Predict the structure of Threonine--tRNA ligase.
Amino acid sequence: MVKIKVTFPDGAIKEFDKGITTEAIAKTISTSLAKKAVAGNFNDQLIDYQQGLVEDGTLKIITKDSPEGLQVLWQTGAILLASALSELYPKMHFGEGKTTEHGFYFDTDNVDGQVAETEFEKISQKMKEFVKANMTIEYKVLSEQEALKAIDGDPYRMELVKKIAAENNGQVAVHVLGNFVDVSSGAKLAATKGVKIFQLLSVAGAYWKGVSSNPMLQRVYGTSFFKQKDLEAELKRRQEARERDHRVIGNDLDLFFVDPKVGAGLPYWMPKGATIRRTIERYIIDKEVSRGYEHVYTPILANLDLYKQSGHWDHYREDMFPPMDMGDGEMLELRPMNCPSHIQIYNRHIRSYRDLPLRIAELGMMHRYEKSGALTGLSRVREMTLNDGHTFVTPDQIEEEFKQTLQLMVSVYSDFDITDYRFRLSYRDPKNTHKYFDDDEMWEKSQKMLKAAMDDLGLDYYEAEGEAAFYGPKLDVQTKTALGGEETLSTIQLDFLLPEKFDLHYIGADGEEHRPVMIHRGIVSTMERFTAYLTEMYKGAFPTWLAPQQVTVIPVKNDLHLGYCEQLRDRLVANGVRVNIDERNEKMGYKVRQAQVNKIPYILVVGDKEVAEKGVSVRRYGQDNSKEVKIEDFVNEILADISSYSREVK
RNA sequence: GCCACUUUAGCUCAGCAGGUAGAGCACCACCAUGGUAAGGUGGGGGUCACCGGUUCAAAUCCGGUAAGUGGCUCCA
């Protein structure tokens, strides 16, 4: 018998007969391990529990309680779903089934009408039947011919089989459950019994292979766990994510709305949302001015020629509103970006090397024609105001300015207590270069420069091809929305192109003309997206400095205490605090509840005792106790709170 | 833009084997009301998204348009 050598995570090496399964090996280690185990990780690849090992390698036994164990369960959930579907809808075709961050999906295409959520009951029932019957899931390696026969004319799986066969000497590994043959890879449990606890979640369209020119399949999402309480926790997590959604909170707290009569993606800011936005705007302008930025205002409309010169008309037209034909030959365009506007400011004067870095900033309103399906609340809109800035530097100032910009960003993030983000270096797509400005040398140079600066700063990042702006590579700061989507919040971009296009120059120490480099940057993103992000991060309970209403004053009895409340209010207003008296004819318990529901940071209750002692009874949002303090002390407390921004960890 | 679903009072939603609308909250009025999460009674409010079709009759069935939701594609 031929032997193979298997290395274990602890470094031990043992010999086994060739063809031995992970299951058999687990049993040699301990019966309790064999009980918990569901699969193996052999040479960094998940394999079935009963798949034979035919070569030397390292093996990790995968147990139920590991993340990889869940992957195996979800793979099994996917094939169970597909198998149940193929029995219910015999004409259905199948794409790939995969795992996601929180479960699994399978892509389907039904000629008699796509599956809808209304059929989940029926589908779940069929899946439960399969679980109850504890059907075996067989791992097989077939020839291309056998595999094609097994999938019986399904065009999508046929494509997969041909591709896999071409890559594996004509061999195709498949899993078979009932009548269904799954050609998508991934280790699975040996039988359906393990997928006892599952839930179908939603359906959504998805292009075959993620290519928009391909047909659209129906993707059915589900999730599964080994324990009921884990499923319940996951469903609760999903529910809480929905409650955190800025669209829900924005509606409940009356922050903003979008009116179909006015147009999709054109948000209205209600007084409370506008207060939050104004606070952010004042904050960031002050911060930038203190860092040497010069804030300007420029028109949101410009002659189309400006965007022809900048290259936007060539490379960004899809995202632009169509130009307005003024009838006399003039074409006006709603600007999609502010860079050309700031270039005009640079060009207004002859610039000396002594002027650089020149930092131009603006809360610049822009319009982009986003596709209807992309619009989402405040985070994806067609009219937006970007915290935009462009620094014009000499080539040898690039690195220093990049680092300073990054420092500014980190400082702002700290003020807002934003901690959950990743840096992404966004390069052009080398296979699709026509989307970008055509200058290989420029791209090579600037991409290398960005990477070197990040390495020099010792910051963690990941690299992504195809994410660059058309004019240059970017450092993006990626964050997550409540519902799990990834979004760019901040961005710093190097640009050698626009200075060329607009023939920018500065006079150097040598008295000659030189070409400056531009750094585009957005720190707090657009007001729309940033407000959406903060709303979700704070769950609508904005820290005091941002809260639309910071204090509510509740008199115990209007007739006796209203006068004192007014004095108190005036004192706070004089200190710039946003405060209201709740003098409605209601019980105070009712008013306290209203204040809590509206997530107002401070509730001040005032009765005889407070009047007598020139004090207030203070209750913080989310707490169920209150404390008595002098007015003086409360004013100091809230002012300290406001000036600390969001930094205090609650 | 694409696939599926959804659209009923300011908000959240019920009603629907076709017979011209209901609840809770909010709002208004009156009564009650002194201590930290909802006092009572009454009232106003809807061309059932919009356009068309089927029918004696459409919120309900069918088609179209718009907007929204879940995703995909694309991006701050």
